[in-house]
């Protein structure tokens, strides 16, 4: 069988991954790790040649540079740097889109610069991951958000980018929330009448699904049942739900109970690494696809941890060309549970996310960055 | 529905000094303005502050707040008496009086340095309205409860109308209302806060004292350090520990830069000895070192490296530890100061002579903690400093110690005025 290279543009000199893109969970560690390591080293070299601050950091902080012999020695950047620095590896004229993190008002946001090639790679990888969960067909699709959010296309924040990215895997989209993010019961019911027996795909941000779909339906006292086989994909972080003490288990149970949705898949992803997302399996574990990896690090020494120990999550992705984001240290905490042996049958490492690192406390007389 | 008389400033929450929560701010300010001004060190203010300090020192739980114990200790009766003697209230040709209503803006977390300034304002004879942060901290609650108790005692009777503690969210309307009526505005905070308040006009006759973000450093003469015996070295490391780790290196006066002065050989040996001794201090005290603090240090290291400003020792790359040390690759500049986040990160610099440090400093620098220099050397250094650079040269260990001269200003003098009198 002829293996199609994941990124045929390799011929054009872009760092590529030598694994079949259509098999995101089809490679065991012995095959995946050397392939990914090769790509990540090539990406380190790529960005060092094109992004001066990145080269400065790697030269000073990571002696292995672009010659790492393990995935854990590939240089990484703390994800917060994209908030304080403009990091890009392309000319300004080649930027087609700038993604920003959602960030609450007043907080600095990440700025991620995308060129055409990076954007294509993101779509390819996301499509491969989605196909493995959804098949090739396009599902009738409910977007759990307000259509108003998309009206301002000048800025792509994480939510808009997510909605636009995922909406290509469905058809006949129904935006089921109104402009104040309350469930528009009438519109949703009318739309569902068209699909009495066809499973539908729902997509939304975790806290929007919880507040706008679940809690809003409860408040309005409506019972809506989605067709059997319907599937919800949600991501964006648990912070607001954890504040309300809602766990993943409860989230799933309530959505099943209220809407009859049996298949609920969380994903872990971030605006700094769009495309190579980590999807949750039927057993509740997040899975690394072959173009990505996670490494947990001890929060005081940053040494890599073995499975079972909670640590700061580092994410690696074979995608980013236009910004040095192929290896990032997040501010999330998680536990690696194993590699290649999840009961769901998917190869690759699998993990859970337990929360965020608490923010650093400001003290002393220099603490008032802005009057708070 | 009948609306309560409102002045549009509904975000104000009174913490101390105003009985009825719904009293409009304009009414509170009106009544504060009519309170008479005292002369500095009026016995009523002195008695109150002395009693407050006593209560603070004996309050349950004070051990958990060593910085508040230091505050209580500083305002003890004997020290107040000494201080009062330095500020005569009648010099024959002039009478000294408080300025009037003082509006204080505290930094994010009440920190003891800020408490010093407004207790001094009370001692200077002023009536005080203090805006504290919206974020309540344990130390803040502790201070407020002791203050409240002291106010209910007999010594508090004459002080009750002279202190109002309040808080409010970002609101220029409220900042404006307070700024319009006060005779003195005292602003502690980041540069952004200072700029924000600077933009709000004061009465033409009012004065302002600001305490913005500052940067502090430390200079060590390598030879002098090498001359120390083990107990001497460990004492020096202990004193450095107090300066740098008491407020997680976030006090304005905490050293963030260590300038080594000497030959490169002596510096190399001195550094090894010094950091090893500090390591022992850290092992002994176990200062706070949360995961977030560790992350903040690392993130700052990346910023330094990215801008080619600083790098780790040797070529081992990033070693994540507490403390974390980086060597400056370029003279200290504005960017290098802005990136620094405290939390146990030290920039190191190597110099042949102390004077080489002078041109690298600016008005951003506050305290230089030193070891191993003579007064003459320090004086020569001070005379070479750029305008407004460095307000305080202290021995290592005394960087955080409060002095009534702060950021270059004599606070009692700045908080009071002189009324010229005819000589008879």
Question: What topology does this entry show?
Answer:
The complex is a heterodimer of chains A (372) and B (424).
Chain A: H1 29-50, H2 52-61, E1 77-78, H3 81-84, E2 95-100, E3 111-115, H4 116-134, E4 139-146, E5 156-157, H5 158-167, E6 170-177, H6 185-192, E7 201-205, H7 206-220, E8 231-235, H8 239-243, H9 248-259, E9 263-268, E10 278-280, E11 286-287, E12 292-297, E13 310-317, E14 327-339, E15 349-356
Parallel strand pairs in A: 1-14, 2-5, 4-6, 4-7, 7-8, 8-9
Antiparallel strand pairs in A: 2-3, 9-10, 10-11, 11-15, 12-13, 13-14, 14-15
Helix pairs in contact in A: 1-2, 7-9
Chain B: E1 13-16, H1 25-33, H2 43-58, H3 66-74, H4 77-86, E2 94-98, E3 101-105, H5 112-123, E4 127-131, H6 138-152, E5 163-167, H7 172-181, E6 184-188, H8 191-198, E7 207-211, E8 215-221, H9 222-226, H10 230-245, E9 255-261, H11 264-285, H12 291-306, E10 310-311, E11 324-328, H13 334-339, E12 345-351, E13 365-371, H14 375-383, E14 392-395, E15 405-406, E16 409-410, H15 411-414, E17 416-420
What does this molecule look like?
The complex is a heterodimer of chains A (372) and B (424). Chain A is α/β, with parallel strands linked by helices. Helices cover 28% and strands 23% of the residues of chain A. In chain A, the strands form two sheets. In chain A, strands 1, 4, 6, 7, 8, 9, 10, 11, 12, 13, 14 and 15 form a twelve-stranded mixed sheet that branches. A three-stranded mixed sheet of chain A has the order 3-2-5. Mean pLDDT of chain A is 89; it is low at 362-372. In chain B, the strands form four sheets. Chain B has a seven-stranded mixed sheet. Chain B is α/β, with parallel strands linked by helices. Residues 1-5 of chain B have low confidence and may be disordered. Chain B is built from 15 helices and 17 strands. In chain B, strand 11, helix 13 and strand 12 form a beta-alpha-beta unit. In chain B, helix 3 runs parallel beside helix 5. The N and C termini of chain B lie far apart (65 Å). Classes of the chains: A alpha/beta (372), B alpha/beta (424). Chains A and B meet through helix 2 and strand 1 of A and helix 8 and helix 12 of B.
């Amino acid at each position: 069988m002829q293996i199609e290279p994941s990124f045929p543009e390799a011929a054009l000199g872009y760092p590529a991954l030598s694994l079949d893109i259509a098999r995101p969970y089809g490679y065991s560690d012995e095959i995946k790790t050397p392939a990914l390591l090769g790509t990540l080293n090539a990406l380190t070299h790529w960005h060092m040649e094109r992004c001066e601050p990145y080269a400065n950091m790697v030269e000073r902080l990571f002696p292995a540079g672009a010659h790492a012999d393990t995935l854990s020695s590939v240089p990484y950047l703390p994800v917060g740097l994209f908030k304080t620095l403009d990091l890009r590896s392309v000319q300004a004229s080649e930027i087609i889109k700038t993604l920003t993190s959602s960030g609450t008002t007043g907080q600095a946001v990440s700025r991620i610069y995308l060129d055409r090639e990076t954007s294509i790679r993101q779509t390819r990888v996301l499509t491969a991951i989605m196909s493995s969960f959804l098949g090739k067909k396009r599902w009738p699709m409910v977007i759990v958000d307000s259509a108003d959010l998309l009206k301002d296309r000048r800025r792509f924040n994480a939510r808009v980018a997510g909605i636009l990215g995922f909406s290509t895997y469905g058809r006949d989209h129904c935006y089921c929330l109104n402009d104040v993010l309350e469930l528009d019961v009438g519109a949703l019911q009318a739309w569902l009448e068209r699909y009495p027996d066809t499973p539908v795909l729902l997509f939304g941000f975790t806290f929007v699904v919880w507040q706008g779909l679940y809690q809003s339906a409860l408040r309005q006292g409506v019972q809506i049942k989605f067709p059997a086989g319907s599937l919800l994909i949600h991501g964006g972080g648990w912070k607001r739900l954890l504040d309300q003490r809602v766990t993943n288990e409860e989230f799933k149970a309530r959505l099943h109970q209220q809407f009859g949705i049996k298949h609920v898949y969380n994903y872990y992803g971030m605006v700094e690494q769009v495309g190579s997302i980590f999807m949750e399996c039927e057993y509740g574990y997040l899975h690394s696809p072959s173009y990505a990896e996670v490494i947990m690090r001890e929060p005081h020494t940053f040494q890599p941890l073995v499975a079972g120990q909670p640590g700061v999550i580092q994410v690696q992705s074979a995608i980013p060309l236009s910004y040095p984001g192929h290896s990032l240290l997040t501010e999330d905490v998680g536990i690696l549970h194993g590699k290649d042996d999840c009961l769901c049958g998917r190869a690759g490492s699998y993990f859970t996310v337990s929360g965020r690192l608490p923010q650093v406390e400001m003290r002393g007389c220099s603490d008032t960055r802005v009057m708070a | 529905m009948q609306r309560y008389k409102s002045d549009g400033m509904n975000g104000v929450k009174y913490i101390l000094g105003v009985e009825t929560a719904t009293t409009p701010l304009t009414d509170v300010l009106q009544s504060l303005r009519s309170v008479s001004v005292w002369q500095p060190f009026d016995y009523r203010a002195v008695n109150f502050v002395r009693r407050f300090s006593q209560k603070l020192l004996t309050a349950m739980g004070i051990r958990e707040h060593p910085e508040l114990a230091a505050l209580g200790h500083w305002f003890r009766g004997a020290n107040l008496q000494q201080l009062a003697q330095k500020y005569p209230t009648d010099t024959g040709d002039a009478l000294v009086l408080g300025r009037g209503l003082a509006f204080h803006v505290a930094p994010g977390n009440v920190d003891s340095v800020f408490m010093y300034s407004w207790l001094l304002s009370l001692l200077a004879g002023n009536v005080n309205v203090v805006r504290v942060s919206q974020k309540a901290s344990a130390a803040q609650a502790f201070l407020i409860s002791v203050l409240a108790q002291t106010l209910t005692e007999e010594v508090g009777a004459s002080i009750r109308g002279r202190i109002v503690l309040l808080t409010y969210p970002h609101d220029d309307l409220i900042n404006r209302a307070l700024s319009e009526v006060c005779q003195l505005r005292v602003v502690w905070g980041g540069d952004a806060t200072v700029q924000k308040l600077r933009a709000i006009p004061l009465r033409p006759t009012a004065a302002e004292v600001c305490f913005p973000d500052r940067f502090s450093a430390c200079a060590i003469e390598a030879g002098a350090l090498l001359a120390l015996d083990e107990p001497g070295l460990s004492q020096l490391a202990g004193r450095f520990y107090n300066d740098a780790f008491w407020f997680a290196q976030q006090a304005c006066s905490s050293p963030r830069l260590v300038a080594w002065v000497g030959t490169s050989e002596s510096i190399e040996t001195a550094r090894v000895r010094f950091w090893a001794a500090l390591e022992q201090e850290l092992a002994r005290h176990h200062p706070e070192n949360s995961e977030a603090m560790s992350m903040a240090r690392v993130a700052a290291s990346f910023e330094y490296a990215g801008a080619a400003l600083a790098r780790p020792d040797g070529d081992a790359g990033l070693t994540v530890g507490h403390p974390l040390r980086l060597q400056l690759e370029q003279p200290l500049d504005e960017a290098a100061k802005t990136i620094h986040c405290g939390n146990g990160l030290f920039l190191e610099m190597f110099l042949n002579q102390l004077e080489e440090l002078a041109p690298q400093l600016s008005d951003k620098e506050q305290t230089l903690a030193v070891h191993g220099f003579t007064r003459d050397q320090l004086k020569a250094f001070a005379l070479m400093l750029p305008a407004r650079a460095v307000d305080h040269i202290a021995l290592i260990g005394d960087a955080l110690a409060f002095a009534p001269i702060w950021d270059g200003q004599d606070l009692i003098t700045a908080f009071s005025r002189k009324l010229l009198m005819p000589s008879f």
